[in-house]
């Protein structure tokens, strides 16, 4: 028998590596020991640590948006003649939507939400939710 094969046999003969059922007080003791070990040795979640962010010029433009996610500035739509840029549907087919102050004004911010804010859900389209178009230059109310 080769040295590697003997080592494999030796490892398999170690009692704690063999599978067996445990129950009752032994199982409870193992569970408690694992829980105590996790509490003592695992670091705190990264979210719980506060860090200073230097030199940020920012302000809050919206609060209390349920399930807020997918945050992005709308930006400028490409105005490229077809066939480029998906045949430029927004600038050519919906020009009033990209004017200053309109829903797709390049300076506005789109925010996804898990709420419909009281509006009825569309028929057969999945989960409730909405995208908000927020003007960051708006007045505080």
Describe this structure in words.
- This protein is α+β, with helices and mostly antiparallel strands.
- The protein has two domains: 3-46, no CATH class; 69-134, no CATH class.
- Helices cover 23% and strands 11% of the residues.
- It is built from three helices and three strands, in the order ααβαββ.
- It has a three-stranded antiparallel beta sheet with strand order 1-2-3, with no helix packed on it.
- The longest helix is centred in the first third of the chain and has 17 residues, at 25-41.
- It is elongated.
- It starts with a helix and ends in a 7-residue tail after the last strand.
- The mean pLDDT is 74.
Give the tally of β-strands.
3
Count of helical segments? 3
- How many domains, as an integer? 2
Q: How would a textbook summarize the main sheet?
A: 3 strands, antiparallel
**Structural class by SSE content:** alpha+beta
Strand coverage percent: 5-15%
Biggest sheet strand line-up? 1-2-3
Specify Rg, calculated over alpha carbons.
29 Å
């Amino acid at each position: 028998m080769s040295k590697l094969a003997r080592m494999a046999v030796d490892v398999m003969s170690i009692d704690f590596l063999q599978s067996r059922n445990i129950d009752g007080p032994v199982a409870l003791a193992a569970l408690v020991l694992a829980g105590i070990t996790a509490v003592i040795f695992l670091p705190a979640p990264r979210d719980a640590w506060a860090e200073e962010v230097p030199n940020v010029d920012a302000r809050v433009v919206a609060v209390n948006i349920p399930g807020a996610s997918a945050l992005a500035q709308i930006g400028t739509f490409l105005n490229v003649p077809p066939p480029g840029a998906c045949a430029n549907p927004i600038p050519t087919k919906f020009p009033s939507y990209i004017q200053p102050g309109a829903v797709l004004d390049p300076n506005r911010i789109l925010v996804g939400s898990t709420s419909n804010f009281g509006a009825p859900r569309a028929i057969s389209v999945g989960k409730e939710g909405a995208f908000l178009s927020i003007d960051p230059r708006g007045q505080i109310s």
